[in-house]
Each structure stands twice: as C-alpha cells, then as structure tokens.
UniProtKB/TrEMBL annotation, chain A:
This is Carbohydrate ABC transporter permease. Its main location: membrane. Keywords: Cell membrane, Membrane, Transmembrane, Transmembrane helix, Transport. It is found in: Cell membrane. The keyword Secreted does not apply. Signal peptide: none annotated. The chain crosses the membrane at residues 12-33, 82-102, 114-133, 145-168, 189-211, 247-268. GO terms for biological process: transmembrane transport. GO terms for cellular component: plasma membrane. It holds the Pfam family BPD_transp_1. InterPro entries: BP-dep_ABC_trans_perm, MetI-like, MetI-like_sf. Residues 77-268 form the ABC transmembrane type-1 domain. Belongs to the binding-protein-dependent transport system permease family.
UniProtKB/TrEMBL annotation, chain B:
It comes from Microbispora hainanensis. Residues 1-28 are annotated as: Disordered. It is found in: Cell membrane. PANTHER family: BLL4140 PROTEIN, DIACETYLCHITOBIOSE UPTAKE SYSTEM PERMEASE PROTEIN DASB. This is Sugar ABC transporter permease.
C-alpha cells in the first residue's frame, strides 16, 4: 500500500471511531426523546421501531395537563426553577465576595481557606444528609422550598468560590488601580470596573451551580413531602408505578428536564473543565 | 445621618492619596487589613453553618441513639449516648460487608472503565479534524448533560425486560453464540434488575456512559496544552509514536490524570441517585452501597439516624483519605494557592 493510501485509511478509521463514540453517547438520549413521541403501541412492543411513525404529542401534552402525582409538570418545573434560580443568585453574591477576597488580597489564613474549600467540596453531600435533615426539621424548614434553597447554596458554594477566583484573578489589577487614582471609592471600583469584567465568569459559575441544583435529587427527596412542592427529579419517580411504568410520560418529562441542562452545557463546557481540574490543566 | 456619611466619604477622599501606595488600601471606611476578612465572612459563615457544623453533628450523632422522638420539631427528647454501639452494630452486620463490597467493586470497575474510555476518546478527539472533533464533542456533551435521574431512567428503559432495546438486540445474536456466551438464547422478558450482579452491570454502563465525556474533554485540554515543539523535537530525534507517547505525553498529562482519578473515585464511591432509581428505592438490601445503606437506616421507619450517621462517617473517612491525595496534588500544581 502506498503511504498516501495508508494515511487515507488511517483517517477513515479514526473518523469511523469518532462516529462510533458519537452514536454510543447520543443513542440513549435519542431513544429517550423518540420514546416520548411514540404512541403507546409503539412503546410497548417487542420489535424495533427506530422512529415514531407518525410522531404523537400524546405524552407531552399529557404530562402538562394531567401531570403526575396530582400536579401538572408545570408545577414541578416551576419549583425546580425557583429553587435553582434562588440558590444561584444567593450563592453568586457570597461566591463573588469570597472569590474577590482570595484572588485580590494576601492575608493570613488565605491558604487555609483555600484548602478548606477543597476539602469541604469533597465531603459527600449524601453523608451530610442526616445532620442537615435534623437541622432543617428543627428550624421548621422541613417541607419548604426555602429549606431546599438554603441547602443548595451550601452545597454549591465551595465549588463556585473555587471556580470564580480564577476569573477574578484574570482581571488586571491595573484597571482597578486606575479607577482609584481617578478618585473612585472601593464600592464604585468594584461595581463599575471589576464586576463587568468578571461577569462572564460569574455567568459560567452560576450556570454550573444552576445545573447542580437543578439535578439535585437526594435532598429534594428527603426534605420535601408535600407533592405540590416536589422538584423535577423527585416528581419523575412517580411515573414508575407498582405494576407498570408510564414510559411515554417519564420520557417526555425527562426530555423536558434535560433540555435546559443541555443548552447550558454547550454554553459553558470549556470553562467547566478548567474549573474542575483547576491548575492541573494549563492553558 | 445622611450628612454624616457624606462627610465621611468626602473626608476619606482627601486622604486617599496617602493610602493608595499600600496594597489593598482602596478607599474609605474599613481598615484595609480588614477588607478581605469582611468579604470572606458571609461565605465562610455559609460553609460553617451548612457544611462544617453538620459534619461535626454527623460524628456526634453517630455516638447517639437518634430516633423519631429525638428529631421532633417540638420538644425533641435528648439523645442517649451509646458510645461505639452504632459502629459495632455496623461491623457485626452482614450488610456492612455486602455494601462495602458493592461500593468498592463498583468504584474500582467504574473508575477504571471511565478513565480508559475517556482517555481513548480524548486521544481520538486530538487526532480528529476540527469538524469531526466538534461533532463528537457535541455528541458526548449530550451524555454528559443528561441529569442523573434521567440517566437512570433512560438506562432502565433500554434494559427493560419486555420492550427494552438491549434484550431485542441480544435476541438478534445467533442462538449458538448466545448459548455459548450467556448459556441461553431467548432474551425475551429477561430481567436485569432483580439480581444484584446484573443490576450493578447496568449501573456501571450508565455511570461510565455519563462520566467518560468529562474525562475525554479534560484529557483533550491537557493534550492541547503540550507544546508542539516537544513533539517536533522527539520526531527529529527519531522517536516512534509509542515511545513519544510514553516519554512525552504520559508524563506531561500525569498531573491531569491524578486529579481525574481522584475526582472519579470520589464521584463513583458515593453514587446514590442512579443506584436508588435503578434498584427501585431501598427494597433490595443486597444491592446497597454505603450511601444507600446509610440513607435506608436513617429514613425508613423506624428511623435509626445514629446508625445511619455512623455509616456516613465511615464513608466520609474513606473519601477524605482519598481527598488528601487530591488536595496535595492541587497544592503542588497550583502556585497561586500559597
């Protein structure tokens, strides 16, 4: 074989491998979405139906009208959005202040604080479930979305500070110095100079915190018992019945829940990697 | 009041030039030394109240008997101190060994598979052309973005006994082959979730599917950061592909790998959501891992919060030992931390 032909063959093999990886990754998601649009006789079948023919909106409209566990899926989408947005906004304020402190100042305990952040990030949320459950109960926040919001601020904060500090550090100090020389106060400098420049990083960090909160399952499961206050991940379970599962309904709901996450992921994918592996990846 | 604060602001402005020279001295009001602490305080409070105090409480509870009467919102009864009872009870329980086995075997297998697959895909992405690479990245992003609850549900559907696509595919195998490999040819109605072994098989597939994209994208980022001059130099010196990979790529990716390994171990050690959904809650005790066991003891009736907390302590201690390696690696590589 000539070198050119061998190179072409190699390229074709690589591309084929790429397609295989793509199919492996995408097929389950494809199957989730198509199942949502299949009428029941095409779902509960032993034959292979690659595409719903004709596509049916039955399940999608049913999860919105009849819903599950006594409420329309709107209710759960609303609860999830409320919890995630509130937790993100609260968390962003705390995170921005703390990130500015560690990125802009040298002070005693700075290293200790950063190491503390790393360690608490690694404590399994599942392990803190029991003490946080009793705490929430004692404070009278059991069965309230407010309790869930507060818990999620705590769960996402260490990572948010960790990720955000690199964005704050990336803003050149000279800009702030110029602003002080022009006579701006500390707050004006922060609000007019630092904040707009850190904003893209703050958005990326917030999106990450949003996804974490949106997906959070075990706290939502244990801290909420009123069905009208369930978040999406918890509500999904109720499509699974004792005897049979409403596969069409659950796939429609899962698809609805996945869409916002997927959009956000495509937006911040690159920044997320750099945040997670921190200094280990340079560049 | 208003007058006062205006005055203070004006006054500080005049004295600003003398302060500007010092680092951190940025304006009126606070003493410059206090600024970072004030900024840090709210976040530190959140961490202390929502993470550190519960951590302490978890340990405290693990030495007490905490039941329904102790967790009432009104007039909770004081918890009895039971010493190491909860821990001896864990060690005496058969569930400890099955759940520890499930936790460790699952983590080892899943971490290994995720890292191998993720690295291979990362290397592949690095070799592919820009268009094809973007295409594959967008594809694996779909798997990565699927929420854990949806992951579990989709894989449960794929492995459904009657209408699942996996059983349909396995039925396509020629009978002799299926008999040879699996010992039976008919897959119609074959259940996957009754037996712990096959349940964990599906769990491993689902978790590997969802977590290899992160490894692949990280490895790709690591590969891109290696200067191409190094490869050119290696080529000039007559180094072959395998040798270049072992001598240049691997050593330079080592810090990335050590972080990825530890993160994967930590994520897979405490897997809860997917297991909970695939196993159908806490009915199948044989399928427990440490997180699910802890949850089951604490939240089924009657609740045994102390015992559950003790199991959580065991899990946390194991994870913190692993975290130690991660923290050391980060402190070593991140100059900015010191």
């Amino acid at each position: 074989m000539s070198p050119l032909a061998r190179r072409r063959l190699g390229r074709a093999a690589l591309n084929a491998a790429g397609v295989v990886v793509f199919l492996f990754a995408v097929f389950p998601v494809y199957w989730m979405v198509t199942t949502a649009f299949k009428p029941n006789d095409q779902i509960f079948t032993t034959s292979f139906i690659p595409f719903p023919s004709p596509p049916s909106m039955d399940h999608v409209s049913r999860v919105f009208t009849k819903g599950v566990a006594g409420h329309s899926i709107w209710q759960y989408l609303f609860n999830s959005t409320l919890v995630a947005l509130s937790a993100v906004v609260l968390g962003a304020v705390f995170a921005l202040l703390a990130a500015t402190a560690v990125a802009r100042f040298r002070f005693r305990f700075r290293t200790s604080f950063l190491i503390l952040l790393l360690i608490v990030q690694m404590v399994p949320a599942e392990a803190l479930l029991i003490p946080l459950f009793t705490m929430v109960k004692r404070l009278g926040l059991y069965d309230q979305l407010l309790g869930l919001i507060i818990i999620n601020v705590g769960l996402t904060l260490p990572f948010s500070v960790w990720m955000l500090r690199t964005f704050v550090a990336a803003v050149p100090k000279e800009l702030e110095e110029a602003s002080w020389i022009d006579g701006a106060g500390r707050f004006t400098t922060f609000w007019r100079v630092l904040f707009p420049l850190v904003a893209p990083g703050l958005v990326a960090t917030s999106i990450f915190a949003f996804i974490t909160t949106w997906n959070e399952f075990v706290y939502a499961l244990t801290l909420i018992s009123d069905q009208g206050k369930y978040t999406m991940p918890v509500a999904l379970q109720f499509f699974v019945g004792q005897r049979s599962t409403d596969w069409g309904g659950i796939m429609a709901a899962s698809t609805l829940m996945t869409i916002p996450v997927l959009i956000f992921f495509l937006l911040v994918q690159r920044r997320m990697v750099s945040g997670l592996v921190a200094g280990a990846v340079k560049g | 009041m208003t007058q006062m604060s205006t005055l203070a602001r004006g006054g500080a402005d005049t004295s600003a030039p003398s302060r500007r020279s010092r680092k951190g001295a940025r304006g009126p009001g606070l003493s410059p030394k206090a600024v970072p602490y004030v900024l840090l305080l709210p976040g530190l409070l959140v961490i202390a109240v929502l993470l550190l105090y519960p951590l302490y409480q978890m340990v405290e509870m693990s030495f007490h008997k905490v039941g329904l009467r102790q967790i009432k919102a009104v007039n909770p009864a004081p918890a009895d101190f039971v010493g190491w009872d909860n821990y001896t009870q864990i060690l005496d329980s058969d569930l400890f060994w099955t759940s520890l086995r499930n936790t460790v075997v699952f983590a080892v297998v899943t971490v290994a598979l995720t890292l191998i697959l993720g690295t291979l895909v990362g290397l592949l992405l690095n070799k592919l052309g820009p268009k094809m690479s973007t295409f594959v990245v967008v594809g694996i992003m779909a798997a990565w973005a699927t929420p854990p609850t949806a992951q579990a549900i989709v894989w449960k559907w794929l492995f459904d006994s009657d209408s699942g696509i996996v059983n349909w595919t396995l039925n396509l195998l020629p009978d002799w082959l299926s008999n040879l490999v699996f010992g039976h040819a008919d897959w119609s109605g074959h259940p996957w979730f009754n037996d712990t072994l096959t349940l964990y098989f599906v769990l491993i597939v689902a978790v590997v599917w969802a977590s290899f994209p992160f490894i692949a994208v990280s490895v790709l980022a690591g590969l891109k950061s290696i200067p191409s001059e190094l490869y050119e130099a290696a080529k000039m010196d007559g180094s072959g592909a395998v040798r270049t990979f072992r001598r240049i790529t691997l050593p330079l990716l080592k810090p990335v790998f050590s972080v990825l390994v530890v993160l994967s171990i930590i994520w897979d050690f405490k897997v809860f959501t997917q297991l909970y959904l695939l196993a159908g809650g806490t009915v199948n005790r044989d399928a427990f891992n440490l997180s699910l066991w802890s949850y089951a003891e604490a939240f089924s009736s009657p609740p045994k919060m102390g015992l559950g907390a003790a199991i959580a302590v065991v899990l946390t201690v194991i994870l913190l030992l692993i975290t130690f390696v991660y923290v050391r690696q980060i402190v070593k590589t991140e100059d900015d931390i010191r």
